[in-house]
Amino acid sequence: MAIDASLLGVLSVVALMVLVGLGMRIFAAAALVGFTGLALQIGWGGAMGLAGLTPYAKAATYEFSVLPMFVLIGFLAFHAGMTREIFEAARIWVGRFPGGLAVATVFATAGFSAISGASTATAAVFSRVALPEMLERGYKASISAGVVAAGGTLASLIPPSGILVVYGIIAEASIGRLLLAGFIPGVISAIVYAATVLILFKRDPDLGPAGEAYPVLEKIKSLRQLMGVGLVVFIILGGLYTGWLTPTETGAAGAAVMLAFCLFRAGFALANLKDAFIETVKVSSMIFSVIWAVLIYVRFLGFTGLPGDIAEWVLVVPANRYVILIGILLFYVVLGMFMDAIGMLLLTLPIVLPTIVGLGFDPIWFGIILVKMAEICLITPPIGLNCFVVHGVRPDIPLPTIFRGAFPFFFSDVATVALLIAFPEIVLWLPNQVAGG
């Protein structure tokens, strides 16, 4: 007896969640469920053909090449020691405030995020750069580790963001507009994080001491070390804003400039270059594997018609569209407790996006909101990946301590999401300037 297509789609979602819950890697679970579903619907031969063709058809597109370029920029900057210089400059400028080193960490992670598209990489880097210094200066381990974990999430929004590129590929949205849309919310997120740190240290000075003040000349001098970072950021944002460069071209140009800076830096060896390339290949392969597997599953969902059925059902619910939106976002908060950010986005987007568009929300705006929700998932237990990354670098700091230190930033993110929902022009203003010419 043939199974109803929509019912098969629902069963596939359940099967996928069960497999992921049992510990199977997302790419393996998505590929298995998607291929099995296709086989049940169009036969094994058809499933084999689509499973082989679909990933290649997407991966062979021009837009896909932007992802490894963005990843490479971050790893080149790290191996050239630029992360230390970014942190030192931030410390000189804001270190004298209450919790100055923590505030400096927030702004330094934001600066590094502008040349690194990976949240976990940012958290790992500053676990080595900023965390030891905060602990050495007498900061409590909880807030020190928590601010590093939370600051790392800024790489999800501030271009070049890998997760925004993934969203654009799956949602078939403009990657250039998405990257521009993430800039202002990313800056706002950093400011809100810094304000959260100031409030925490003002209420409890025992969290850590303020740093020393530096003269203006010293502050200006510290900025000279950031020329390479500033030029790459200018190329990416300027190229996208003016339309002179496509997202892929900005990635290639940014990587080329960063490579040139690295090759002329004292202490940068061929071994560093080799490490940067190898790590870029590893991260890119991991992301591509997840995308390819999810594309097979998405193709299967298209045959079931489940995304359209869910959108039609939601659209007839007698509720304000913002109430429905908040319900969807709460669903992501819960789901994020059990899945990593990229996997959660890839597996749910094919079902959720038609509903969002049907409710009249802009898909570019929703992409930024969704990435903010992914940021929340990076610091919330039990799967908060950035907290695990910090713990991996510093196993002497217990994982519950790191989650406790990151907890205040959960409320910071909720406040930022509420602001972006109330004022969507914050997200859309910059990309609309480009679109409007």
Report what the structure shows.
77% of the residues lie in helices and 0% in strands. The longest helix has 35 residues, at 270-304. Helix 5 (100-113) packs parallel to helix 8 (141-152). It has 437 residues and is mainly α. The radius of gyration is 22 Å and the shape is globular.
Estimate what percentage of residues fall within beta strands.
under 5%
Which stretches of 5+ consecutive residues score pLDDT under 50?
A: none
* β-strand number: 0
SSE-based structural type: mainly alpha
Multimer state: single chain
Q: What is the approximate shape?
A: globular
| Terminus-to-terminus distance | 57 Å
State the helix count.
21
Mean pLDDT: 87
The helicity comes to over 70%
- Strand/helix succession: HHHHHHHHHHHHHHHHHHHHH
Structure described in brief:
The protein is mainly alpha-helical and 437 residues long. Helix content is 77%, strand content 0%.
Please describe the structure with a list of short key phrases separated by commas or semicolons.
21 helices, single chain, 437 residues, globular, 77% helix, mainly alpha
Outline the secondary-structure elements.
Layout: H1 5-21, H2 26-59, H3 66-79, H4 82-94, H5 100-113, H6 119-129, H7 131-136, H8 141-152, H9 162-171, H10 175-203, H11 216-223, H12 227-242, H13 247-263, H14 270-304, H15 306-315, H16 321-335, H17 341-358, H18 363-377, H19 385-393, H20 399-422, H21 425-435
Helix pairs in contact: 1-2, 1-14, 2-14, 3-13, 3-14, 4-5, 4-11, 5-6, 5-8, 5-10, 6-8, 6-19, 8-19, 8-20, 9-10, 9-17, 9-18, 10-18, 10-20, 10-21, 12-13, 14-17, 15-17, 16-18, 17-18, 18-20, 19-20
